[in-house]
Amino acid sequence: MRRYLELSFFAFISPNSKANLSPQKLHTAYEEFVEVIFGDSETECNITCYYNRLIYTRVELESIQANLQIGSKKNALIGPYLSKAVAIIDAQLNY
C-alpha cells in the first residue's frame, strides 16, 4: 500500500523531511514518481490493488498540501510538484 510513499519524491516533500532539497533533485524525484505510477498502470495485474495504492497516495499528498507553511521557500519549491502529482493521480483514478 505504501509503495509510492517510499519513493524519493515523498522523502523530499514530507513536512519533516531533512533531505537536502534542490530544484533538480525534486524534479528528478517527481519524474521517477510519475514513471512508477504510469508503469504500474500498464503492468499491474490486480487493478483493485493499484487503485487502492493511488487513493492512499492521493490522501497522503492532500495531507501534505494542507500542512504546507504558506510563504515558505520549501512550499514555493514543492507546491507546484504536489499539485501536478495530485492531478496525475486524479487522472489515473478517473480513467
Summarize the structure in short.
It contains four helices and no strands.
Structural class estimated from helices and strands: mainly alpha
Number of domains: 1
Q: Helical segment tally? A: 4
Low-confidence spans: none
Tell me about this structure:
This protein has 95 residues and is an all-alpha fold. It has one domain. 72% of the residues lie in helices and 0% in strands. The protein has four helices and no strands. The chain has helices at residues 8-13, 23-43, 47-66, 73-93. Helix 2 (23-43) packs parallel to helix 4 (73-93) and helix 3 runs antiparallel to helix 4. The radius of gyration is 13 Å and the shape is globular.
Layout of helices and strands:
Layout lengths: L7 H6 L9 H21 L3 H20 L6 H21 L2
Helix pairs in contact: 2-4, 3-4
Salient structural properties:
single chain, 95 residues, mainly alpha, 4 helices
